[in-house]
Amino acid sequence: MARRLELPAQGWVRRYRVRLFGQVTQKDLDGLAKGVTIEGIRYGEVSAKIERAKGSHVWATIGLKEGRPRK
After folding, report:
1. Spans of all domains in the chain
2. Gap between the Cα atoms of 57 and 1, Å rounded
């Protein structure tokens, strides 16, 4: 049952706390809501919210509905 629930086809949002490097603003992250193409692969919408920033590090919460296999 757990394996079936974790599949991207189920549409569950997976949330991750991530550390970003550089001068990242909420406006930068808002552009991810329309989806993003990386190395020719189209990814669906990404929800992202900045939690805090300190120096050159920004902590954010990222929500994904789809996954991709790692190589």
Report:
1. 2-64
2. 38
